[in-house]
Write a structure and sequence with these properties.
The chain is of the alpha/beta class. Helices cover about 40% and strands about 20% of the residues. Strands 6-5-4-7-11 form a five-stranded mixed β-sheet, sandwiched between helices. Strands 14-13-12-15-16 form a five-stranded mixed β-sheet, with helices on both faces. A three-stranded antiparallel β-sheet has the order 1-3-2. The longest helix is centred in the C-terminal third of the chain and has 25 residues, at about 315-340. Bound molecules: zinc ion. Zinc ion (ZN) binds near residues 258, 260 and 262.
Length: about 400
Amino acid sequence: MRKINTRDFRIATRTTSRDINRRITLNLIREHQPISRADLARRMNVTRGIVSVLVQELMDQDVIYEGVTGETLRGRKPTFLHIRTHDRLAIAVDVRFSKTYLMLCDFAGRQLALETYDTIFSPSAFVKDLALRVRRMAKNKAFRAGCEGIGIVVPGMVDQRTGRILKAPALGWTGVDIRDRIVAMTGLPVQIENSARACALAQLWLERGDSRTHSFAYVTISDGVGVGVVINGELLRGHDYLAGEFGHLPLNVDGPRCMCGARGCWEAYTSNLAILSRYFGWDLSELSPKALRDSGKHPFSILELIELARAGDAKAVGALEASARFLGLGLATIVKAINPDCIYLSGEIMNGWDMIEPIVRKGLSERALTEAGARTPLRLTAAQDYPRLKGAAALIAAPTFAAPRVA
Ligand SMILES: [Zn+2]
């Protein structure tokens, strides 16, 4: 939904309405590409002439192109319009508690190069190292076409306008500004966002046609638990960038300590670290941040635990099933809070979905209040698709498209 502020007349200029129309056109092309001008005019309920002007402006900006000619029974053959994504590049960075992932990709999120390294917790060392890696990546042949920016996702709350990382408990970062330093050191535009929100943005950006959902939650389960919320096609950030922090809603106020410092958050029950703790008998409340970090780098991963469970290891099955129930209970909270069309789930634990699905659904229906709520579709995204990196790339690729807003 576009937000048009009827009380602020300063914004009601001719340029504004033109810009909105251009964004609407762009969004329609993205959703329905390849699409002809005639089809666009039908969908927008305007004349071909108006569409032609808007399309020409977008072509002049180089954001769309004309592709193959379509077939019609009679009359002029239409040419189809496409969003230009294949030769536009971005660098995507996913900073996690245990590892950092860096990918060079095109605007559709297709991977051209990928590196993984241990996360650097000192902000200034992180910035220096990142600048070095970006410079190295710039030597990649594909890079020569030009990279349009760096999208960084972090596990925490971010003021996305200023790029300030307000609080990322897993990184120990509070009020950290790294954006301008990275811009200065690389010469590229930089966008920073919460990982789950970026995933939700990418979902909006990459999904198209009839499979699109308008209100959904995107849940990422890794070292922590993040949730990105989209309502009526718009990413929800909240007044102070706190909206959607379901990972830190308590399931039990006396529960294990969470990385945010509070006790019993949903995250402390169902994150990868929580699952591993259950298996190894660690007490999350007793572990220091350093010990936690080391445990995140534990050679024994969640994927191995899933394999053990599959082979019938009772302890692994127990750890997985307990976490699955908590996952379902937390999903019920999301259903009750925003009642979305569907919930997307991503993270390594989804590799064991066939084993945990009935338990997750049972947990969900236990607390979802209504049958319809319990039936909320759960859709999985595969970890090997790097949804968080796609989210980071969408920060550079998608702003022009998603959530057109007059402000
Ligand atoms: Zn917490």
